[in-house]
Amino acid sequence: MCTVSAVPELLTVDDAQARVLARARPLGLEAVPLEDAAGRVLAEDALAAIDLPRFDSSAMDGFALRSSDTPGTLPVVDRVAAGRPATRPLEAGEAMAIATGGVVPAGADAVVPIERVTEQDGSVVVPEHAPLGINVRPRGGDVARGSVALRAGTLLSPSRLAALAAAGVATPRCVRRPRVSIVTTGTELRAPGEQLREGEIYESNGLMLEALLGACGGIVERHRSVADDEAAHREALAAALEADVLVTSGGVSVGPHDLVRTTLAALGVEEVFWGVAMRPGKPISFSVRDGTLVFGLPGNPVSSLVGALLFVVPALRALQGVADPLPRFRTGTLASAVSRRARRDDFQRARSEWTGEGVVLRPIDGQESHMIVRAAGADALVHIPRGEGEVAAGAPVRYLALDEAGAA
Ligand code: AMP
Ligand code: MG
């Protein structure tokens, strides 16, 4: 008789992400001066404070006139510059010189570019018919006053900052940035630059997480490193739970020195899940206390990285009210076949290459979870779904562009 040992079903990545997002509700809002709002997320729809353009505006350097007067020779009765409107309306049979961005005078309904006319003796000769409205940018053509310029949940990229500035929104209401604390665990850890004794290694996850989560809008404190000691864990984690998000590294597996989960439980933190069907990063934990989300990332540096990208970054985005917080995977093709894992989704580090038709992904040598130097040479994280057999060379796969992954 053969016995089948029960392998506990791990949560899938999708399920685990859904459980995280279910707890990651947007934080409160605050008015933010536009000059400080890069990378922030709108808490409310931003309404245009003015019509944009604010007035009928010339698209060209040329002459404002009436379409019905063209072709023809018209006296030039005024010169309009940007910021210096005409002093009177334009009458039939007249033209006014006008610069790009100048107010098209009342009475004019077309602008003829300077290249299409000749100016002589105070008049302008317009040889062709100028269609009605040509080169006039109508008032409110970009956005009308009072209508939605940008939706709630929009991340303020450079072009969107410009849009708000142009539409007269000086202090958009944004979601508060989450406060993030990071605690790395391990008696073996030493800060870079220190002397290593036998068995010690340099701490690398703390810096990585600070940089990544800071780039995603977190207000990140300098990380703390604690030894594998209950009292040290308790003290550091209790203090770190004051933040909106606590991220730990290491100490979340099943060894006798893995103290993060038990310490969190003793501090009244409720575990939502532990273990996700992925590689690297399986023993990740997610828990909550009051308003604080707690992510226990495994200590192997690549596991920490992948766990942070798939779970912590989306949580930070959701806390900031981003409408689509999950990582944005793209599609590429595999350069060489990759074996699937039966039970776990694999996230392979790869180099991407643009061929002119699409992106080809070449998994790097050195896929083990301690190999952070190898991983640092990759620019893509390729998703190999769990299953039987292999994903063939040339097959389409989803990947995350690592260069962009840090952006909120
Ligand atoms: P752990 O998850 O604590 O069992 O750690 C797994 C592996 O990751 C061990 O080899 C640790 O020494 C290593 N490790 C843990 N934390 C860090 C860290 N902050 N920086 C670099 N390596 C780490
Ligand atoms: Mg450890």
What is the straight-line distance between the termini?
55 Å
Strand composition percent: 25-35%
Query: How many β-strand runs?
Result: 29
Please, what is the oligomeric state? Answer: single chain
Question: Can you tell me the residue ranges where pLDDT is under 50 for at least 5 consecutive residues?
Answer: 1-5
The overall pLDDT average reads 96
Helix tally equals 8
The residue fraction in helices comes out at: 10-25%
CA radius of gyration: 30 Å
Structural class computed from helices and strand pairing: alpha/beta
The kinds of small molecule bound in this structure are: adenosine monophosphate, magnesium ion
Specify the biggest β-sheet: 7 strands, mixed
Descriptive overview:
By secondary structure, the chain is of the alpha/beta class. 19% of the residues lie in helices and 29% in strands. It has helices at residues 13-23, 158-166, 205-215, 230-240, 260-266, 301-319, 372-376, 402-405, and strands spanning 29-31, 46-47, 57-58, 62-65, 72-80, 95-98, 110-113, 118-120, 123-126, 136-137, 148-150, 173-175, 179-185, 189-190, 201-202, 219-220, 224-226, 245-249, 270-274, 278-279, 285-289, 292-297, 330-334, 338-339, 345-354, 359-363, 380-384, 390-391, 396-401. Strand 21 (285-289) and strand 22 (292-297) form a beta hairpin. Helix 4 crosses helix 5. Residues 1-5 have low confidence and may be disordered. The chain binds adenosine monophosphate and magnesium ion. Residues 185-186, 228, 250-251, 257, 299 line the site of magnesium ion.
